[in-house]
Amino acid sequence: MARGYWIAHNDVKDPEIYKEYLAKNAIALEKFGAKFVVRGGKYETMQGNLRSRHIVVEFKDYETALACFHSPEYQEAAKIRQAASDGDLVIVEGPV
Predict the structure, then answer these.
(1) Global pTM?
(2) CATH number, domain containing residue 84
(3) pLDDT in tens, 22-40
């Protein structure tokens, strides 16, 4: 079965509020068995314009990735993220 992934790129505007988001999103991510593949770290943009923070989260499948995003737990966290950062998030199906 193919895995599901969240791929996010964020610019954090308020680091203190973003810390609240990280604490809240941990609840949803743990509930849905998520695993961080990339979370910040050193990077070099080779082409295009990207934001300053890069995150890849792996789920057991695409449906679980969608369910986590739409869960009440994550939606509560997402409100905090939107207040603390500007970003882009895509959910994709990846290889087995």
Answers:
(1) 0.91
(2) 3.30.70.100
(3) 999 999 999 999 999 999 8
